[in-house]
# Entry
Amino acid sequence: MLFGADGAQGNPSNLYRLDPATGAVLQNVGPIGFPITGLAEDPSTGTLYGSTARGPSTSTEHNGLLIRIDEQTGAGRLIGDLRPDPDDETAADITFTPDGALFGWLEPNSDDLAAINKATGLASIVATPVLAPKEQASHPTRRGLCSSQRAMPVRSGRSIAPPARPPRWRP
# Structure
């Protein structure tokens, strides 16, 4: 099943079931109760998680949170604050490795990669980009997160090795 969430500028999101072939909305599952910017399903458990990033400058109530989302009702349940520094970065997006390790992309200033504890929401930086965000804008062929390390260490002792062949980027 493919899920999506709406909501922008810090407005609470709704959870949607989407057609994997077309992206069309099949069902509005229900309100999540948080402004979701990152959405990912744990492949090891099937649990759906969401992250919130910065909302409008006047609202900080839902900044930088990790939540668990009920796939049947859409309701979000707070797990914890995932910001390494409460006054700075938040996880704009999240993703899982095939074995269920959770990672987040920190924004708006650093573009760091963080390992995230699924039980507490605690994020720990594991890699930083080689190019600063301003430098990335002047290098249009360099997209995504670049690490100065050949493999990115993870707190559990495992590492994420780079692919044998670099992925093809499409403009």
Remarks:
- Residues 134-171 have pLDDT under 50 and may be disordered.
